[in-house]
Every structure is written in structure tokens, then in C-alpha cells.
Amino acid sequence: MDQSDLTRRRLLELAGIGLGASVLAACTADTAPDITSPAAPAGPTTNATPARAEPLTVRTSSGSFVSAYRPGVTSHWAVAAPDMPRGGAQPQLPVAVFLHGLGGSHKVLLDGLAAHEALQRHLDAGGTPFGVAAVDGGNTWWHARADGSDTQSMLVKEFVPFLGGHGFDLGRVGLFGLSMGGFGSLLLASQGRLPGLRAVAAMSPAVWDNYDSRIEGAFDGPADFAANDVFALRPRLAALPKRVDCGTGDDLAATVRAYRAELPGDVEGGFQPGGHDDGYWRSILPDVLSFLGSNIT
Question: CA 171 → CA 88, 146, 150, 199, 226, distances in Å?
Fold first, then answer.
């Protein structure tokens, strides 16, 4: 794709989901059940996969907090996870953290993608249980910015530890995201800041192989681009299970194809009919969840 054609308006169209939009101990739950419902232990915990004795039901919860890395901004979160049977040793569930696209929010996970419904179908088909979670990242492109915000550190130092404090297994973590969030997932995975990371999946990631000032808002300048160049960081993903998908009708397909071409090791996913929209992302989400479930559980 010709970088000169990437206007700000087109970038918003490509990188956004199209949906409207400091201490984690201060989180307040907005809806029932509380995040402790699907994951908090009633007794001793284990990270062993539980035997399936009865059908599991996915529950959702949400809340908010003010992050030290997004001063003055309330960040909202959402979680979907199976309500595990009570009694005996309660398993610590793996968790996959979702990064939304430009113009999106935590709501994309459940409202845009209906990930809780896809996760329920995954479980009903015999898939291994795990949870999915999302948090607001604004339009920061999931890395430290010149304005002092740092949503990547918010994920690493606040949100993921928060999930661990509520019963999820931080030794079994996945990342997935779409568009801007696909870029952010690949960047965080490449930079190795999550010790328990076991897999990464990027849907239509907004990636570029060179800096152009018209990639407005994504980087603070050439030096910032160089520090967060996912093309240059590809060798660091050699040992990590990874999946990258993109629609054949997506204007980002050419750069995504170039990014995939020199990724080391096996790369799952590929190119399927579709564009840069909810319909495409929903269509591939079951396969993405299956990939994550196979690698983080």
C-alpha cells in the first residue's frame, strides 16, 4: 500500500472498529457478576485443566479505574469467562487480553465482536476453558507517547496484574487485537514485557514498514516509529505461537502480507475474503479463539 495515500480520514477508517467508543485496587464493578465470580477461588487453586463434569456458562463483568499511565482518564474494562463449578480445588483460568482499534474501547470485545458468545460456542464444542478481557486504551496505539500516556505499561503493570489478583493464571496469557490493537498486540509480544505470554493473534493489524508523517497519531516522529517498529522486531517472535489474519479486500492487506512473509517460525491464520469491518472480524474470531485456547491452556 502506498503510504502517501494514507490520509488521516482513511487511517481512522482502517484502524478503527467503527464503534463509539491510579490504582487498580480502586476498580469499581459496574455490572454483575463481579470479576471474582468466574475466576476467584473458593478454596485451593490449581492451574490444571479441569475435567468437564457439566456444561460451563460464560459470564461477563465490567468496571473501571484510573490508571497512573493515563492521568485524569477513567479506563473501563470488561471480562468474559466461564463460571467454573464450585467445590474442590478451583482452577486458575488462562486469560487472553484483547486490544481494541482506533476509535474503539473495551466495548468492542463484547459489543462489536460478541466475544462472549463466541467463547460460549468454543466451550460448548469442548474447547478448553479460558477467559477474555479488554480495557480502554484510547487512541494511543498501545505504546508510550510524548504526552506522557503509556497504555502498554498500563496493560503490563496494572491491568494484567489486576486479572491475576482475581484468579486468572498469569503464567498462561494470550494477546489478541484488531487493527490498531493488532499492531499493539504484535508490538507488546515482540518487546517481551509479559513473562507469561504464550501466544499472540493479530486481526487486520495496522502495520507499516516505514515512517511517514501522514500516519497521523500513530507515532510521535521517526525516532518513535523506530523504537516501535514491528517489522524490525519480527525475529523476537520466533519461539512464540502466532496468528495473523487479514481480509483480502482490506487496504492493509499488502503490508500485512509483507509483515507475515518474514515472520520466523510457523504462522497460523492467513487471508480470507472480507474487509476491515466487524463482519470480517466476527467471521474469523472462532478460529482465533481456538488458536488461543490451544496455546494458552
Answer: 22, 32, 23, 12, 30
Radius of gyration of the chain from its Cα atoms, rounded to whole angstroms: 18
Cα separation, 65 vs 195, in Å, equals 24
Task: Kindly tell me the number of DSSP H helices and DSSP E strands found in the chain.
Answer: 10, 11
What's the rounded Cα separation, in Å, for the pair 162 and 24? 6
Burial of 277 (0-12, 13-18, 19+ CB in 10 A): middle
**Buried-exposed string 66-90: b where 16+ CB fall within 10 A, e elsewhere:** ebebbeeeebbbbbbbbebeeeeeb
**Is the Cα torsion angle 112, 117, 121, 122 positive or negative in sign?**
positive
Question: Contact 63/25 with Cβ under 8 angstroms?
Answer: no
Q: Which residues of 28-42 are buried (b: 16+ CB within 10 A; e: fewer)?
A: eeeeeebbebbbbbe
pLDDT, position 54: 75
Question: 3-class secondary structure for 150-190?
Answer: EHHHHHHHHHHHHHHHCCEEEEEEEEEEECHHHHHHHHHHH
Q: How far is CA 36 from the centre of its chain?
A: 21
Structural contact between residues 106 and 135, judged by C-beta atoms closer than 8 angstroms: yes
Give the pLDDT score at 213. Answer: 77
**Of 131-140, 216-225, 262-271, where does mean pLDDT reach its minimum?**
216-225
pTM, entire model? 0.86
